[in-house]
Amino acid sequence: MSKAWQESEVVYGTEDILTSLCNSVTRVLTVATQSEIHYSGMVQRISKTCLKPDIGCFVLFDGGFSGLVVLNFSAATAMELYENYMLNMGMPKSGLALSHTSDEVSNIMGELMNQIVGDFTGKVRRELQTNITQNQPKMLVLNKQVVLSVDTQLDKPESRRVTFYTGRNNIFYLELAIDRTEFIKLHDFEVNEDLTPDEVLAQASAEHNAAPVAHEAGNSDQDELLKSLGM
After folding, report:
1. Tens digits of per-residue pLDDT, 161-188?
2. What is the pLDDT of residue 82?
3. What is the CATH number of domain 7-186+206-228?
4. In whole angstroms, what is the distance from residue 157 CA to residue 177 CA?
5. How many C-beta atoms lie closer than 10 Å to residue 60's C-beta?
């Protein structure tokens, strides 16, 4: 490896991947709910990923690199995001679910997570020139913490937690477990522009009009994981 190449190399590591994912969360939720979503400038290194009350959502991805994404919402946060999303879609307030335990709330939160991970995987293809695939998000209404372990799937797992804030200052958390990896830029290439906010919202609308996110029976990897957890 030449000295000149070493000096000019661009390395894209775990924190860069995490930042890209966090930006997808803020981007999709801000557009979908028409409210300001932002995240903390500090990130936590954690030893394990967990689903926590009141609503936990997770999705597995694989391909160029493997990992697990978890979003944990309090009841108040989930209801704020659900209500803002549905009102933004034109649903009258009288037609909204009243409890975070409603299947409709779980379906909508699953749709939003699907949009988030879809936005993220699109950026991975454009910016890192590799491909990852995602499984369907799984939503769970919880009254206790459940540890999710992906150690058997990852060679050198790294886990991070980031705190997010909604427009009403409700809090939710993103947790990421990922293989320790670095992407090194070999040569310059064009990166296509991201979708506009209107296009992101159109995608969210299409997801809403499609079949709801399954959160019950199925033969997905998530279901097998839940079975192994005794749930």
Report:
1. 999 999 999 999 999 999 888 999 888 7
2. 97
3. 3.40.1550.10
4. 6
5. 23
